[in-house]
UniProtKB/TrEMBL annotation:
It comes from Paenarthrobacter ureafaciens. It comes from the Bacteria. Residues 156-342 form the Peptidase M24 domain. Coiled coil: none annotated. CDD domains: APP_MetAP. Residues 1-17 have a biased composition (Low complexity). This is M24 family metallopeptidase. Residues 1-21 are annotated as: Disordered. InterPro entries: Creatinase/aminopeptidase-like, Pept_M24, Peptidase_M24B.
Length: 370
């Protein structure tokens, strides 16, 4: 099936595509470099991560749990976005960069096959064939998207301060995450992950909320997406002074994080950082197996983790690359979204109202005690 005639933009939009023309030109050059290296003339992008990165923040989803409602063919003549006919009006009015052509298929039509059919030979390079190359292309944030990321991260941190600052021991986990969801959505973002564990569930490191009151202490986690970028943050709230064991564990997990931050420098491979993570847990009294009990985070940006770091991930760290590391132990976890700049790691998920302590020269979050 061939694509239908290019859609004309006739709708007055209350939102305009967030993309920056200068940043988009650089991204297109990076994709053309991938085509050059592979000896091909077209690449089909189909994942939310790749599409939102390449379109520089356009929203190409309806259901947060569903597949994108668009596919994009990049070839040497230009960029060609294919979407369903019932989505084309919004896409054209609010999400489409000026230099991207828009084509439609029926809402029940073959989206990917139609986009692939736009390739000169009908057989484009597939996204899955160049996963590592595309990941490398989006490692380094460009100026406009770095600014958008910093603004989103600040909004996510502020939501945590506002909501946890108003919590009480009787607040239920569902009440807490629903308030966080409201704040995230009000900021124009999408809550991709909302977690909470009260005092009775602190052993769970991915705690989906329940109707239980949070009790004397609780952890909350937010992963919020806006303009394609995902900010990740964890915070703790407590209604007592904390036990000596809890305070000691909080200090030690912050020390683990500090070791990870010191290892996050340009030119280092991610598997080398992973080795440092494993050693840091043992160095700070959590034992040699602690890293096996939860993922440790990794590069961030247009995916929650891009990718999660393991011993098999050999990507090389670059300047202006975002990260979210999340070391954790029994009853403790620390997590912020950061950007590696030429002056070192910059913490993005910051709200100056949140209490901090200095760890290795950086302000790191303490447990909030309202």
């Amino acid at each position: 099936m061939t694509a239908q005639t290019q859609t004309t933009r006739t709708i007055t939009a209350s939102r305009t595509a967030p993309g920056n023309a200068a940043d988009r030109a650089i991204k297109r050059r990076r994709v053309l470099d991938i085509l050059d290296a592979s000896g091909r003339d077209a690449l089909l992008l189909t994942s939310n991560t790749a599409l939102t990165w390449y379109l520089d923040g356009s929203r190409v989803h309806i259901s947060l749990a569903g597949d994108p409602i668009a596919a994009l063919l990049v070839d040497r003549t230009g960029d060609h976005l294919v979407t369903f006919n019932n989505e084309a009006g919004r896409i054209a009015a609010e999400e489409l960069p000026a230099d991207v052509s828009l084509h439609t298929v029926p809402w029940h039509g073959p989206l990917h096959a139609t986009a692939a059919g736009l390739a000169p030979d009908g057989n484009p390079l597939l996204e899955g064939d160049v996963t590592a190359e595309l990941r490398a292309a989006r490692q380094q944030l460009l100026p406009a998207e770095a600014a958008r990321y910093a603004a989103l991260s600040a909004d996510a941190a502020a939501a945590m301060t506002d909501v946890l600052g108003e919590a009480t021991p009787d607040t239920t986990e569902f009440e807490l995450v629903s308030r966080l969801a409201a704040r995230v959505v009000a900021a124009g973002a999408e809550p991709l992950v909302l977690l909470c564990n009260g005092a009775g569930r602190s052993d769970f490191r991915h705690p989906l909320a329940t109707h239980s009151p949070i009790g004397r202490r609780a952890m909350a986690v937010v992963c919020a997406r806006r303009d394609g970028l995902v900010a990740n943050v964890t915070r703790w709230v407590a209604f007592d002074a904390g036990s000596p064991a809890e305070l000691d564990a909080e200090a030690r997990i912050a020390a683990v994080e500090a070791d990870i931050f010191r290892a996050t420098v340009p030119g280092v491979r991610l598997n080398e950082v992973f080795t440092e993570i494993q050693q840091a847990y043992e160095r700070h009294g959590f034992g040699p197996e602690q890293w096996t009990l939860h993922h440790q985070g990794g590069p961030a940006g247009y995916a929650g983790r891009d990718p999660r770091v393991t011993s098999a991930v050999t990507d090389t760290i670059v300047l202006n690359q975002p990260f979210t590391w999340n070391p954790s132990g029994p009853g403790v976890k620390i997590e912020d979204t950061v950007l590696l700049t030429d002056s070192g790691l910059q913490i993005l998920t910051v709200d100056e109202r949140w209490p901090t302590t200095e760890v290795d020269g950086r302000g790191r979050p303490l447990t909030l005690r309202p």
